[in-house]
Design brief:
Blueprint: H1 13-22, E1 25-29, H2 40-43, E2 54-58, H3 62-75, E3 84-88, E4 91-93, E5 100-103, H4 107-114, E6 121-126, H5 134-149, E7 155-160, H6 167-171, E8 175-177, E9 185-190, H7 198-212, E10 216-220, H8 224-233, E11 240-244, H9 250-257, E12 266-270, E13 283-288, E14 291-298, E15 303-310, H10 313-321, E16 329-336, H11 357-366, H12 382-394, H13 406-411, H14 418-429, H15 433-444, H16 457-468, H17 477-494, H18 505-515, E17 520-523, E18 534-537, E19 542-544, E20 556-562, E21 568-576, H19 579-585, E22 587-595, E23 600-609, E24 612-618, H20 624-638, H21 647-662, H22 673-678, H23 680-683, H24 694-699, H25 702-707, H26 714-721, E25 725-727, E26 733-737, E27 746-750, E28 762-763, E29 768-769, E30 771-775, E31 781-785, H27 788-803, H28 826-829
Parallel strand pairs: 1-7, 1-8, 2-5, 2-6, 3-5, 6-7, 9-16, 10-12, 10-13, 11-12, 13-16, 19-21, 27-30
Antiparallel strand pairs: 3-4, 14-15, 17-18, 17-20, 18-19, 20-21, 22-23, 23-24, 25-26, 26-27, 28-29, 30-31
Helix pairs in contact: 7-8, 11-12, 14-15, 14-18, 15-16, 15-17, 16-17
Length: 830
């Protein structure tokens, strides 16, 4: 093992000290094993610009934070809690002597909120920044504002093994690079992508590696379930098989990280927490299952779910590099070499995908409810911010202006999601502190009961309390121990005692409803062929309990966990909700909407919780603007065919639309279908009267509404430029047929009525010749033309030859130029 004095990072320490002496923000790139996390901070403690102040190191994971602090302290011959300490959620090893503090889980943000100047801190290091965690991005944005407004002497060092090449330029910061000391790693692929469970594939590869290769083995799996399954499949191998994941007790984490005291080979089965930061002594072989489990937030449903997907190329490189930290190594990739270039290059920043409710509340408390006020590397998406604001308003954490309320500030005292914090504060205020602590802990941890145990959260509270008293409750003891540890921390923060009484299921439901107000649900009436247990959530989504679940007969539920299916989600965890508790959340709202089934305007007052309507009563007066808006929405949804266009209205519209096309600079209104739909409220609204149904809409006279669209003197100009009729040589006034597309209008007239007319008639001030439909005596078109002169000189004679025998009573002169135009036959016309 390299000593601190020989670590590669020391090669660039002089340059880094020089950069930090003059620059507020510096970027450092160093490969795994270079010592950037576990040695570099020690070299900066005596720098003049630090002036005896603290160094804070932000790590993205608790396991890494503890391990980094332990290695730094070891470099000084100390234990954590002296010169070097750490602080993670519910755990702290610091003292008055601590100069380097490794923190995670929003600890830095909490400190910034309480002390924006970061008094006593001279340097903040953001480690493993390539992961682009939400906390790291928020911390960087806040620190840059602190540097600009309060602390021009505060230094920030951004570090990682791999970085976006554009990052230094985006931060306007110098880049320092350490080459490190990486040993060669042989990468072995499968001949084809495997089929089957990843834990089976990893176990086979680990057994193969133990036979073929030297050194300890680090295997990557997507989650805890797969780790335990693979551990069972590796029973009997000649090695210690140890798990490594975030919720593992500290003692077991240390067993995985340190060499086996007896010198036995070791197999560490880890989640993605082992990709970076952590150094696991003795690893010469990496087995990469090729999968990663991440949280995915769906703004449409407001649900976050764990998604298992392919590892990205940069993460695969990080994993493989673990095999070459101390000696040449081997990396087994459990996919084909053909698949490798098809993997995603990297994961997008967490800020682009995550639930932004915690960040939005932090920004509101910081005094920046508008995220645009901060300098982000990637600004949080506006739609997700709006989703977060809606949730936080429902939790009473934000006011209508987006500012943090007193409750919002209180929620930030709890190191958890605002939902869970709101459950805790509400439970404590209602004298339900012990139950709130237990429910919150259960919601944050894995389910302690085995599959098939039903969905009732109250059963989990009972199992926890029975286990706490030493009675068998049927739950997993390891999971229950973690739940109790977390519940104990919540009780401490709430200042409440423990309780092992049988829980009131309705009280459990009321607490869940505080955390998930949009997931309170009422039972849907049983439908033909469908079982009970189908519910409507306040958020508008459907949800169904598993077949035969004990809660299926409940009239109302508070749902905690369900999948994010769009139509009808599956409920995994819920509690019964008292109908009175549901009514406490309900409010009276005026509802004016269009009923597509009956084709009528529905106006009523509704006592509702979100999409759930508990009671209705007629709405006596409908505000005009609301009625117009609702009817306009109905027309947009069902189409303009709801309106009746009389021939006069249709032609008026076509005439105006023609002028809109022909004279774009003359401000003629656009009356196309889309334009009319877009402006319904403006042109149709004043003429809707008391319309409340499809029949009423169909009876509306549209011509007055259309005519109101024209400004003076456009009505007169309309008659001049786009007349409804034209006079022809026979003396007849013939109607013109205009079209919406701006084409020439059609003049359909009997051929004999135009004898002697040389030029094609025009509209639009002489600019647009009409399209002549020359008719036979029977009124059928015999020629379509916009060049009447050419017709008389050529095509007329072909027409004459074809028709004069069929219509002998009508004139077919040899010279159409001199014959008198007529609308009569020879006998009557002479």
């Amino acid at each position: 093992m390299s000593t601190a004095a020989t670590l590669p990072i020391h090669e660039i320490v002089p340059a880094l000290k020089e950069a930090l002496a003059t620059q507020a923000l510096v970027v450092l790139q160093a490969p795994p094993g270079a010592g950037k996390s576990t040695a570099l901070p020690l070299t900066l403690l005596d720098e003049p610009w630090l002036a005896g102040q603290q160094i804070i190191i932000l790590q993205p994971r608790r396991v890494a934070a503890r391990a980094v602090a332990a290695r730094l302290a070891e470099g000084l011959g100390q234990e954590p809690g002296g010169t070097v300490g750490y602080r993670v959620r519910f755990e702290s090893r610091t003292s008055a002597r601590t100069r380097i503090e490794v923190v995670t889980e929003g600890i830095l943000t909490r400190r910034l909120q309480r002390d924006p100047e970061l008094s006593g801190v001279g340097l903040v290091i953001l480690d493993e920044f390539h992961e682009r965690s939400l906390n790291a991005d928020l911390a960087l944005a806040l620190l840059r504002e602190v540097q600009g407004a309060l602390r021009d002497d505060l230094r920030v060092l951004v570090m990682s093994a791999t970085l976006d090449p554009d990052l230094p330029a985006r931060l306007e910061a110098p880049l320092l690079e350490s080459q490190g000391r990486a040993y060669p790693v042989e990468v072995r692929y499968l001949p084809a992508d495997p089929v089957g469970r990843v834990e089976d594939q990893v176990a086979r590869a680990v057994r193969d590696a133990l036979e073929r290769d030297q050194g300890d083995v680090l295997a990557f799996l997507p989650g805890v379930r797969e780790i335990h399954a693979a551990q069972g499949r590796l029973a009997g191998v000649d090695a210690q098989v140890l798990p490594l994941y975030g919720d593992l007790p500290l003692k077991e984490q240390r067993r995985a990280l340190l060499p086996d005291p007896a010198g036995q080979r070791k197999v560490v089965l880890a989640t993605s927490i082992a990709e970076t930061s952590l150094t696991i002594e003795g690893v010469r072989v990496v087995v990469d299952g090729g999968l990663s489990r991440t949280q995915h937030f769906d703004p449409a449903t407001g649900l976050t779910r764990m998604v298992t997907g392919r590892v990205t190329r940069d993460a695969a490189a990080q994993r493989a590099g673990r095999a070459g930290r101390t000696a040449p190594g081997v990396a087994y990739r459990l996919w084909s070499e053909r698949t490798q270039p098809l993997l995603g290059a990297s994961r997008p920043p967490e800020i682009m995908e995550a639930d932004l409710a915690p960040l939005t509340l932090e920004l509101a408390q910081w005094g920046a409810p508008d995220p645009g006020a901060l300098a982000w590397l990637d600004a949080p998406p506006a739609t997700r911010i709006e989703t977060a604001r809606a949730l936080l308003r429902g939790l009473d954490a934000l006011d209508e202006q987006g500012r943090a309320t007193a409750e919002g500030a209180r929620l930030l005292d709890f190191p958890t999601h605002p939902r869970i914090a709101h459950l805790l504060t509400g439970g404590a205020a209602e004298g339900q502190g012990p139950l709130a602590a237990d429910v919150a802990a259960l919601l944050e941890e894995r389910d302690p009961l085995p599959p098939g145990s039903g969905t009732d959260l109250a059963d989990r509270v009972t199992a926890l309390r029975q286990w706490r008293e030493g009675r068998a409750g049927g739950g997993d003891p390891g999971v229950l121990e973690r739940i109790e540890r977390l519940s104990r921390q919540w009780r401490r923060l709430l200042g409440t005692d423990v309780s092992n009484e049988a829980p009131d299921p309705f009280a459990v439901g009321a607490l869940v409803a505080r955390a998930y107000p949009e997931r309170v649900a009422v039972a849907r009436p049983p439908a033909a062929g469908l079982s009970r247990g189908r519910f409507l959530l306040a958020g508008g989504q459907g949800a169904a309990l598993p077949e035969g679940d004990a809660l299926a007969g409940s009239p109302a539920l508070a749902v905690a966990h369900l999948d994010a299916a769009q139509a009808e989600g599956r409920v995994f965890l819920a509690a019964p909700l008292d109908a009175q508790a549901l009514r406490v959340q309900a409010i009276w709202e005026d509802a004016v909407r269009w009923d597509t089934r009956t084709g009528t305007l529905l106006a009523q007052q509704e006592f509702r919780v979100g999409a759930i309507v508990l009671e209705t009563r007629p709405l006596k007066q409908v505000p005009a603007a609301q009625r117009v808006q609702t009817l306009a929405g109905a027309i947009r949804t069902e189409g303009l065919h709801l309106l009746t266009f009389s021939p006069e209205a249709a032609q008026w519209r076509a005439r105006v639309q023609s002028l809109h096309h022909w004279r774009p600079d003359d401000n003629w209104p656009d009356v196309s279908d889309q334009a009319l739909l877009d402006t319904l409220e403006a042109w149709l609204g004043p003429h809707l009267g008391g319309a409340r149904s499809r029949e009423d809409l169909a009876r509306l006279s549209l011509l007055p509404a259309f005519q109101a669209l024209l400004d003076w003197p456009q009505p007169q100009q309309l008659d001049e430029l786009a007349p409804t009729h034209l006079s022809v040589p026979s003396g007849s006034r013939v109607r013109l047929e205009y079209r919406l597309g701006g084409e020439a209008p059609v003049l359909a007239v009997k051929l004999q009525e135009l004898f002697g007319l040389e030029q094609t008639p025009t509209v639009n001030g002489g600019r647009t010749p009409v399209l002549l439909h020359l008719l036979s005596p029977a009124g059928r078109p015999v020629q379509v033309t916009q060049d009447l002169r050419s017709f008389w000189n050529s095509s007329y004679f072909e027409v004459r030859k074809d028709l004069r025998g069929r219509y002998p009573k009508h004139p077919w002169p040899d010279d159409p130029w001199t014959h008198l135009p007529t609308r009569f036959t020879k006998k009557r016309g002479g």
